[in-house]
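Backbone-to-sequence.
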């Protein structure tokens, strides 16, 4: 091999490695910001007896699956549920009020426009239902296998409560 060809090849490989490293550095930052709600934010004053649900094996052909989580304000003060957002576009959440009224859908920030503010007042001792809808078809045929999604509730005390759903998606 000629020295010029060898040098060019080495520079080309270094350029590709540099571009890959630069691209992954941006992804690491986004992951850190996205995960910050659960690890760095204070816990919410709102509580839920169940924060995790595993749908088990579900089929894309059967369509959406739904899980309802009860969230309660055990404090003596009213708390405003300011925001509800999900970790993926395939998951949406709704707030079901005490009168049966529904607010939402709340989804993933940046997909389909801004996530609307929740602004749901939860008085002392009151509860709300957070209805979570997972669409196994949202990612198409590439979306089969294990999925793990998060729903984050942000409240007026600057705390967050994270709900989680899992499923094994089959065609």
């Amino acid at each position: 091999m000629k020295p010029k060809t060898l040098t060019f090849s080495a520079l080309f490989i270094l350029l590709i490695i540099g571009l890959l490293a630069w691209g992954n550095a941006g992804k690491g930052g986004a992951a850190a910001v996205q995960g910050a709600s659960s690890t760095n934010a204070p816990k919410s004053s709102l509580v839920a007896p169940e924060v995790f649900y595993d749908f088990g094996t579900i089929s894309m052909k059967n369509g959406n699956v739904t899980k309802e989580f009860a969230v309660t304000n055990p404090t003596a003060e009213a708390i405003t549920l300011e925001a509800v957002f999900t970790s993926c576009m395939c998951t949406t959440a709704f707030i079901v009020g005490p009168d049966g009224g529904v607010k939402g859908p709340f989804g993933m920030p940046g997909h389909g426009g801004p996530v609307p503010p929740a602004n749901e007042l939860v008085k002392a001792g009151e509860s709300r239902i957070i209805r979570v809808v997972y669409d196994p078809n949202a990612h198409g045929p590439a979306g089969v296998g294990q999925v793990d999604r998060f729903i984050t509730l942000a409240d007026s005390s600057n705390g967050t409560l994270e709900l989680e759903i899992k499923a094994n998606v089959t065609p």
